[in-house]
Amino acid sequence: MVLPWRTVDTRARRWRSGHDSRSLQRAPGSQPPVQPRRHPQRPSGDDRPSEIHVSWEATTVSMSDDPHWRVRARKSELHRPPWLEVLRESIELPDGRVIDDFYSVQMQDFGVVAAFTDKREVVVERLYRHGPNRLTWSLPAGYVQEGESPLEATVRELREETGYEAGEWIPVGSFVVDGNRGCGWCHCYVARGARQVQEPKSDDLAEVEVSLVPWARLIELLAAGEITELASAATIGLACTRLGPQVSI
Length: 249
Description:
By secondary structure, this protein is mostly beta strands. It has 3 helices and 14 strands. Strands 9-6-12-11 form a 4-stranded mixed sheet. Strands 3-4-5 form a 3-stranded antiparallel sheet, with no helix packed on it.
């Protein structure tokens, strides 16, 4: 199959230092690198990089007919329901190699939603998260309970955590949290027509502050590093791809 383009040669020049970065090794058969265009000397203190010239070459990689790894044996090393289970697996690769100590982590699937009001504001929470060990802005999210679909769980969590409901729900993607270890699936949604129907009834361990944040401001918070959870950041990005950065709803 043909993989995305890869850089085979690049040179970058920074003002003031006048230093060219070391070029990457060119792939066989590729053209010589394009020399960077020289610019007039800029005023002292201007550290903006000059143009970067890149040559490209397609890379073709052959894969076996069956790329799946075969699980030969599996043992539970740590089981703490309902939160997680750590599994040690013996894995046979397509080329016949055997890995006897490959670890995977099973965790609950969860849903996260960017819920928009008719005024193009997003329902957002601010609370302490122990993972990043700080206060952070976050989209409403929660675990999928037994017997629930991901959509049903996310609708429930939005109502419980924030007191809001939404009339239209759009699935924008489902993603495994860790490509090697698993760690559950994240189901992302965009919702329209959000309105408050009750007071929040969150059972979160931390105190939660619910706010309506304009979309442009939410993008600023993400760019400033004030949103520290990958699920929230990914859902905001997916909302951009589905609705556009201006969010015409």
